[in-house]
Design a protein that fits this description.
The protein is mainly alpha-helical. 70% of the residues lie in helices and 0% in strands. The protein has helices spanning 15-21, 27-30, 32-38, 43-55, 63-75, 85-91, 94-98, 104-117, 123-129, 133-148, 155-170, 178-198, 206-225, 233-259, 265-297. It is globular and about 55 Å long.
Amino acid sequence: LHPKSQRGASITKTDDEEAAATKPISSRSSSLPAQFQRSKSDDSLDIAAATMHDHTYGITSDPMVRFACALSALIHDVDHCGVPNAQLVKEQTPAAQVYDGRSVAEQNSLVLAWELFMSDEYATLRSCVCPTASEARRLRQLVVNAVMATDIVDKDLKKARNERWDRAFNSDALRQSENDVTNQKATIVIEHLMQASDVAHTMQHWHIYRKWNELFFKECHAAYKAGRSQSNPIDTWYKSEIGFFDYYIIPLAKKLKECGVFGKSSDEYLNYALANRAEWERRGEEIVAEMAKEVAGTA
């Protein structure tokens, strides 16, 4: 990373960007139900599409939002160096200095990925996805909002997300228009979808969870051996995984179920999270011992 280059600008949203980020669903998507009513070619498909639109707060009806979600999930860990933000700040890496120690890895990933997306190599893709300057700005606002949601450690960001969730799903919405309420729900749901994509292995089959959990363990152990972490994951991994399930994964799965955006699949994600937590509690210590032997053999 070159701190003095163009990519050095910190991703701090302006008031206009913040407003746009909280209203990701375009007027085109909000008018879709009326379009469904006018279409008589296939009533069953119209009803299904309108139902999906309502259940996902318009997300599935907005191609730009759908692309932004996929792109954000793809790029949110670009150039990740295998250590958390706290370590980057402690080491005073160039990126940590550029971004003032806030969401360092997330901002770095965003800037690098957006530079690549805006390069001539992807001109054809941009001409299809965001051919106008206003559409490109909207895409960027959506991607910034989504990727920044994956910083789950920053206390201020976490507090703001929880407040947005409460406003969208738990507060009295009678004073707001239906469109505003839908937009608020869509925004916070997108943020939680991104968080779920970041830890999706925990809400899938045990073997998938085990595969990615072991890879993460090895990454953390490599950081420890390199002197970039004070704690040996061998000593903390078993209990920290239980805490991760109890205080983050399971509450997140419950929120996804509460918002209803995944329909019946939400039950599946929550059930997998609960089952993996139970299996880890039963077998985790044995698994950590096995992983410890493996990393010792490769040292």
